[in-house]
Structures are given as C-alpha cells and as structure tokens.
Amino acid sequence: MRRLVLLGIAVILASGCVRNNNMDVGQQGLTVRSSARYASGFEVFDHEDFKLLHVYNPWQNSRDITLSYVLAEDDALIPDSLKEVPYIKTPVGRVITLSTTHVAMIHQLGKSETIKGVSGTGFIYNQEVRDRINAGEVLEVGYDQGLNYETIVSLDPDVLFIYGVESNIRATSEKLIELRIPVVFCGEYLETHPLGKAEWIRFFSLFYNMEENTDLFFNRVDSTYQSLVELAAHQEDKPKVLTGLPWKDTWYMAGGKSFAARLIEDAGGTYLWKENLSTEAIPLDLESVYARAVRADIWINPGAANTIGELNRFDERFRDLPVLLQGMVFSNNARINEMGGNDYWESGTIRPDLVLADLIGIFHPDLLTDHRYIYYRKLK
Question: Are 355 and 344 in contact (CB under 8 A)?
C-alpha cells in the first residue's frame, strides 16, 4: 500500500533542474550508459567521474518535465556546467523513502540497513525492515501534510526518495529545500508495463553503485517473464477478467492500457475493458460495470473483500453474477501482515514474473500444474 506524499515541484524550480525533454546532454560530453528497456520514466548519462540522471514526468498528468540529478563520489569532479544540478554523493548510506515499493527495491539490493525513515511504518511487509522498525532503527516520518520535518532533519539522510501525485505541491517542497534535504523524485508507479515498474530497481542501484549486479537480477526477471508470456500466448481460450471493487458508488476501473490490463493480457486473459485507451483508472457507475461483469469468467483484485460472502453483502446484485456463483474470485492479498502491509505492493513490484505466474495459474491452471500461488489466493 502506498502513501501518497505531496511534495513540491518547487524542489526542482529552486534547484534549477527542470528542463525540457530535448535537453542536449551530448554537449556536456556525456553518453547514454544504458537506456531502460521497459521503463519510460528515467535515463542515465554516464561520465568517468559522475552520472547524470534524468527523471521524466514523475507525477500524474505531468508533461515535458525532466528532473536532473548528478550522482558522484566527489563533487569536485563535477564540471561547472552541472554545478546547479542537485548533487547526491554516492554510495548513499542513509536514506528515507516514502513508498513501500522503494523499500522492496532497496531490500533486493541488500541495503535495507541504509533505510532510516519510512512513510507508513505499519504498512511495511518486509520482515527485516519490520524488525528494524520495532527496534527503533527505522523511524516513521509521516506522510502528506503530516510529514514530520523534525524527524527527517534528525535522520540526516543522504537522500530522500519521494513521489509526487500532482504539481500543486509547492509548500511541502519549499520546506524541504529550506531544510537542505537532498530529494529525488521517483515515478515508477506511473509505468504501465510490469517490467517497466520492476526496472526501477536499476534506478535505485545507481545510488549504491551496484548497477552490474542489479542488471543481472533484472535480466533474470525479464527472461522468466517473457518465457511465461510466450507460454500463455498460445492459449486459444482466454477467460474474460473483471478487476477491482467500487468505492462509494463509483467503480474506478483500470484503463485498457494500464499496468493491470497488461498483466491480464500477458497472462492469457481477456480484460473486459481492453478496448479502453486510458493508462489510468476510469470512473464508472455500477450499472455499466454490472452489464459487463455478467460475462466475467474470473474476478481478480476485489479490493478489501476477504470472502465471497463479503462481496455478496457489498451489493445485492453481485449475488447473481456467474463469476461469484462459481467462486472464481482471486485476491492479491495472500501475503499480508496483521497491520495491513501487503507484499504484492512491495516485492511483487520487482518480481512481476512471480505475479504473472500466479495469474497464469489462475487463468490456465493446466499450464503450470506445479505452481503454488505466491501473491494470490482464491476467496471462499
């Protein structure tokens, strides 16, 4: 579960690192070290002594925004032309992160001990980090307008990883600038390809100088994912899939070009809203959803519902849905702790191959006969 932290565009404006996407970095003698294969939100330009990192459009509905950061072991090696770009000394040793997804990526790098502060300690699933929270080694820093600046300053981070929801976030960011907190925006949650989200582990590896080992890990995930896609692609019978649950009489359905829709397609399913061209959730009334839901063979990710009975009680019309009558409902909360921390939103983000295997096991159980669900469970 993510906590949306509204942190400001003023970080960028005050630091002089907002640039358009046509910035000619070649004039600075830099070359692209490794372009991302699936992620569209970041790019790295390499130099012998430093790296120039670009983050593109890292909040919803942002356009033509590039946030730039210089990563180096010694700022004396940075040319004058980049002196106004925010500098992060690497490798980092003390970090604050405001997303559980970032916790999972840092843990995969073997650097959990560098995490000193998080947003929403109760929603962390990773046991190693939970143990450090319980021992007082990782502190709660708050979220949204309740960010605890005193705690953040006391932790003296080398970098604070944040993600913005919208551009109207100036007040919080100006406060962070005033407090001289090194801030780096992350936009992995906006990626629409499952491997695009996972590839942001390469982004985090830059701050620890661990790119080579991380590339090996991501390549294995990529290879396994593609093999599973190929396996599911040959299935002629593709079950019709419903996803989500309404909220206050509105069903925010995943767009047809979204992350969720891509996973369903890659697993050999037919998403009931596949013709929709949105990458974001689309608000729908229950009547229009119900009209299609009667055709669903499988229902996944039904929100907070933990049983078929809860879904039946949610709306009396659900009781007549064939997918409920047949009990074909699967939730992505198989790995959840007593405080609500869901590992689907942590390690599931960097292991889309495992998530895909779960979905193939649901859609086409004859293909992976030995597979045991990791993130999913069938509701009873």
Answer: yes
What size, in residues, is the chain?
A: 380
Domains in the chain, number = 2
CATH number at 247 reads 3.40.50.1980
Query: 137 and 259, same structural domain?
Result: no
Residue 274 structural domain: 231-378
Considering the entire predicted model, what is its pTM? 0.89
**Domain endpoint, select from 178, 209, 240:** 209
Report d(CA 148, CA 126) in Å as an integer: 23
Q: Are strands 282-285 and 250-253 parallel, antiparallel or unpaired?
A: antiparallel
| HEC string for 79-97 | CHHHCCCCEEECCCCCEEE
| 311 in Cβ contact with 318 (< 8 Å) | yes
- Asked if 20 and 138 sit in the same domain, the reply is yes
Pairing of strands 159-162, 95-97: parallel
Residue whose entry in the numeric block shows the structure tokens 């490794």: 34
Burial, 371: exposed, middle or buried (Cβ in 10 Å; 0-12, 13-18, 19+)?
middle
Give the type of residue at 267. A
Mind listing the pLDDT tens digit for each residue in 160-176? 998 877 655 556 777 88
- Alpha-carbon gap, residue 104 to 83, rounded angstroms: 32
pLDDT digit string, tens, across residues 334-377 = 999 988 899 999 999 999 999 999 999 999 999 998 999 999 99
| Sequence-ordered list of residues with C-beta below 8 angstroms from that of 240, at least 6 positions apart, any chain | 269, 270, 272, 295, 296, 297, 298
Q: How many other CB atoms sit within 10 Å of the CB of residue 39?
A: 23
